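We give the chain.
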Amino acid sequence: MDLSLENAELIANYILFKLKKHQQVLAAIKGLRNGLVYGARIRAPHALVMVFLFGTGTLLEKLKTVLTLTRTHAFNLGKFVFGYKLALAFLHRFKNRYQTWHPFVAAFTVGYYVFGENNGVNTQINLYLLSRIIYGLVKLAVEKGVIRQPNSPVFPWFAAFTWGIVLWLFENHSNVLQNSLKTSMTYLYRDSNVWTSVRDFIVYNKLPM
């Protein structure tokens, strides 16, 4: 390691040590860092695949779209983690101890401002979370005895209901579905109805112009 870099690391470590009494603020800053990294890692490959498979425009335009989507996801997630951890620290100090409702209030408040803007990235993230919290709440209800543990497997019925509803919506009311879902389902269920030769039956979805 270069001597100047080693000195810089030593100084930074000393500063972190001196600031250890502000652990909650430092945790928020580390959360910002982790949110940026995680958001970029999650969004970049997904956006790259979806934009290049289904997007339109030149190569440069597609790359700009990928970068825009990645930046939006990463910065929103980073801002949310940072704001949530600060809000949690504030509530903790205000009440002098942790309360079980603190996470909800902190996340509710910060989520309104960070993920409240109606755009494609936020919609995907919110829907991703919605499906998982519904699943989690049902399991919690069983654990707490609010719902009786079923005697037979429930997951097949969950899958059947999910796929039945989404295909009913797609075939009859596709305008209400999110654009990315509608694009994927069009590729799977509508484009597979059309071909003119063996080339666009096997090799291509549609013959290149």
About this structure: DSSP finds eight helices and no strands in the chain.
